[in-house]
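Request: How about a record?
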Amino acid sequence: QIPTGNSLYESYYKQVDPAYTGRVGASEAALFLKKSGLSDIILGKIWDLADPEGKGFLDKQGFYVALRLVACAQSGHEVTFSNLNLSMPPPKFQTHPPMI
């Protein structure tokens, strides 16, 4: 269980569910999570852990789990439930195209 009330996670959630439907579809989540710079293999593992029932979408809690797992991977930790409670910096996402 990831605590809600994290303002950074809230702002990320607003980007993928601006209408507050309570669901983030697979394509919206994938587009957002790809901005983490992680490989598709790692992102697939994150999705499988965040959507363990294979619903094809994430609720807010599932999205928070995905964000936390992205932070795990970016910090060099293995992507597992047991690492969710480790102390680590927040996840980072490329929100603007790089300057050329």
